[in-house]
Task: structure prediction
Amino acid sequence: MVAYEFYRVDKAKGSHLIGILPERRENSNRITEESAIEWVKNLLGDGEDLSNIFFVKVTFSGFEEERGREDPDS
Result:
């Protein structure tokens, strides 16, 4: 699973995670920096200074395995 982690840079306190966007497109290479920044603009609102925002593409493994409650009959 591919996702994008968005961070806000605070010069006094460092970087802070502000959101995670899971990639749902079949071809994850199609996302552009512009479309990622547009998502964070929608999340934070138009008044946010985006010059202190950056994102990182991350890959998670193990999400394909089945998860859920245990079978109560077992």
